[in-house]
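[Target chain]
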Amino acid sequence: MTTTPRERVLTGDTPTGRLHLGHYVGSIENRLRLQEEYECYFLLANMHAFTTRSDKPDDIRADTIEIVKDWLACGIDPERSCVVLQTEVPAIAELTWYFSMLIAFNRVMRNPTLKTEIDAKGLGDHYSFGFPLYAVGQCADILAFRPVHVPVGEDQVAHIEMCREVARKFNHLYCGVDQHTLDEEHHTAGGVFPIPAALVGKVGRLVGTDGKQKMSKSLNNAIFLSDTPKEVKKKINAMYPGQSRNPDEPGIVEINPVFDYADIFIKDTAMVEELKDRYRRGDNLGDGHVKAPVIEAINELLDPIRARRAQYEGKDGNDMVIDIIRAGTKRANAVAEDTLARAKEAMRLGFGDRATFLG
């Protein structure tokens, strides 16, 4: 009996530190669901980390290991999903070079996500050439595995759209796929690459504990997946509710970020609606009364994550993680090399596989 190959999913994270609740609701929840029915590849984009932290290789290495611990703690199963180290997949770097010929520099610089990062990180015009190149590299990260879906946060959708443009152009230029072919028909029409679709999590953008900006480590407004119950309580209690009021005065739910958290993390929707109603009426309901069940709900979510992470915190924890990275990357390379061979054949560069020239 034969089985139908599962469609592929690719997503990942740049190792810039521990993962937080924004990552969880924006993408990781989707990954957990998708690994049940898709062939999943989760990429550690450590090469991209060098675009802004090339002077901190030790930090990048440590952050790479910490992110895998977060993935495993959340429930990513390395037996079902490949954990992939970007720098050990040579096909990605080579595809980046080819794809850079298919997209104009001005188009890369118009990418709104890239522009936002330049502003947020205060780079001005003092960024390396590699910084905008990483936007093209993301196209290679994705297309190397020929996925149909890419789970991302809302802020990454622009990157996925550029990837889709590259895939369409490659298929048209080198595979003869008609420009008017529907995206979902590119592969069956002879294209090397399917046109991947972005899958945004249930929360496209989670506001940070400052109540204003998107949750981010660099803005010091994040609740990390590895935070203790005490740290979660402290951070939520410090959140500004968007207004100053007495408990017996009407409040404005819509400007209070604590209610955003209530909607996202509290499972009892009837209780959330009751809290909103009482808050709007000024029914002796202070902000602390709203924060308390939010804290409880977040800690309920994080408790099993903390427990699973603990097994990787011992003296052999890092070695266990590195073994998982090596095994997953070996499996992933077989797929990426196959993609590269197909792409080079389409580009009339197929003079033999790597073994032909290395042996």
